[in-house]
Amino acid sequence: MRRAAKIDGNQPEIVKAFRKFGCSVLLLHMVGGGCPDIAVGKNKKTVLVEIKDPNKVLSKRELTKEEAKFHSEWLGSLLVVESLEDVINVVRALER
User: How many Cα atoms occupy the beta-carbon half-sphere of 42 within 13 Å?
Assistant: First the structure.
């Protein structure tokens, strides 16, 4: 039986920032199986985004085994973000 999905402490802030920059955001953290936390869309482009909390120690920010497997097998765009600066970089890439 699957446990309730946990989110990183900064997920609400990250989601809010993407939306402020005009992006669509689909919450995926409850999907499981290593699926990233959110899908972000802008300008007819979509990227899957794994959110990690920079306030946690480095070892707690590493991808889980399931996340690492998903990342290695995913053939589309997939990024890890921790900060507002990361959000801005993703938005700029989606705007190109």
Answer: 17
pTM over 0.90: yes
Convert the chain into a string of H (helix), E (strand) and C (coil). Answer: CCCCCCCCCCHHHHHHHHHHCCCEEEECCCCCCCCCCEEEEECCEEEEEEECCCCCCHHHHCCCHHHHHHHHHCCCCEEEECCHHHHHHHHHHHHC
Evaluate if residue 65 carries a pLDDT over 70: yes
Cα 81 to Cα 51: distance, rounded to the nearest angstrom:
5
